[in-house]
Amino acid sequence: MHFSERSIALLLASLAGSSLTHQIAQDPGVGGVPIEIVHLYDDEYPQGIAVSSTGRMFSNYARSLDPNNIAYTVAELNSNTTEVPYPTAEFNSPPGGAINYSTTPASGANYENYLIGVQSVVIDPLDRLWILDTGRAAMQNGTNVPASVGGPKLIGVDLSNDTIFQTIVFPPDVVFADSYINDVRFDLRHSVTASGKGVAYITDSSQEGRNGIVIVDLGTGNSWRHLDGTKYVRPETGFLPVIWGEVVYSLPNGPMQPISQSTFGADGIALSADGATLYWSAVGTRYLYSIPTTRLLDNSLTSELMAQQSVVSHGQKGISDGLETDTNDFIYGGNFEDNSIIFFNPANGTVNVFTRDPRIGWTDTLTVGFDGYIYFTENQLWRTPSFYPGTDRRVKPYVLYRAKLPGNGTKVVLS
Ligand SMILES: *[C@@H]1O[C@H](CO)[C@@H](O)[C@H](O)[C@H]1NC(C)=O
Ligand SMILES: *[C@@H]1O[C@H](CO)[C@@H](O)[C@H](O)[C@H]1NC(C)=O
Ligand SMILES: *[C@@H]1O[C@H](CO)[C@@H](O)[C@H](O)[C@H]1NC(C)=O
Ligand SMILES: *[C@@H]1O[C@H](CO)[C@@H](O)[C@H](O)[C@H]1NC(C)=O
Ligand SMILES: *[C@@H]1O[C@H](CO)[C@@H](O)[C@H](O)[C@H]1NC(C)=O
Ligand SMILES: *[C@@H]1O[C@H](CO)[C@@H](O)[C@H](O)[C@H]1NC(C)=O
Asked: Does the residue 166 lie in any domain?
């Protein structure tokens, strides 16, 4: 048997500890509600997760985050370890591919009737699936191409017959070619818009810096932006995470280019249980912000001034990607540096640990099911080649977990 010097030192230290009958305090590593494995991803690289009222599950596989996400960018989870393209294989396969190499520079294909590169899938209060297409994809060397009009869109799918019932294509002055529409939340109450068909709120996490919140009237299809380029939606200068003991620097311009700190803007988004407040967080910050939704729904002459004057900082919560709400009105998010998932309770203004486990690192997306569980994906995003040192250090499988919500919490249904 062979011992390293370090393991001998540790052994001696532990013997010394026990002979002194002193237990040396250490990080317990686990805490809170236990987590259970729901699905193992062995094929493409996943981010989002959506769970319907009947337990059907869907994920997305952004073509910007992994150029090998070719066969599908949305899939249904059809067993514990396999996935099938959704709604069809054809809809996931733009003719000639997701990238148009006939433009200079290359750009996202302009198809309205095909998926280009999907960053989010969400089940709305009426149990319909919405697909948020960024219109962007990465070339084999990892560089993301800008979107073309037709690419960035929001697509509604009726789960009773797996048929598309609505497609909203974003104009290029709302979702810019170098935008990256990231995540979306729905309020379908008739009262929120003149059209009476509800509204969607979307984050723009663009690494090129076009960060903001996009608002879409689902009845008219009209969309507009708020908080563009404000500090509330931007990553912080000097921000540096450590995840699983690894310091996380970005490589926004490619492997052999200078390294930088995080470049991800507004990403996670969650509505309060009453729909009156929208929360969001940039990945490149530890802060949680909110705004009254009335300030976002307003698109009048002075509405942006009033929006900026209405942002509330809830202080720090750790580093998160996705955010989610339940009927307790708790706002859940990852805390990458602590292997935990936290929740913010607006009723007492505190952040609390919900669950903690060494398998938790980059919690990409959280979604509350109708079954009283919160589901979340762990996808090791900081180990993709777009982070220093530019090599692929991800280890399959990626994992979908779930955990029981406190206080009989369940999905918020604003309809
Ligand atoms: C699949 O996962 C569920 C729990 O999410 C479990 O009940 C079931 O036994 C699993 N099926 C297989 C074949 O492992
Ligand atoms: C590719 O770009 C060319 C030149 O702009 C354009 O005519 C064509 O429609 C584009 N095709 C796709 C699929 O985006
Ligand atoms: C799918 O189901 C919805 C709701 O029942 C219905 O309105 C729609 O017409 C159906 N679409 C097709 C193509 O059958
Ligand atoms: C990737 O390839 C494209 C097209 O050849 C080029 O414009 C871009 O600079 C390359 N990116 C890197 C990081 O090398
Ligand atoms: C805040 O509320 C949460 C959820 O009810 C609770 O767990 C926590 O103890 C509260 N914190 C304080 C300081 O009251
Ligand atoms: C949760 O629901 C169960 C069964 O309906 C009930 O007994 C329990 O009191 C509820 N707990 C809370 C915290 O509401």
From this structure: yes
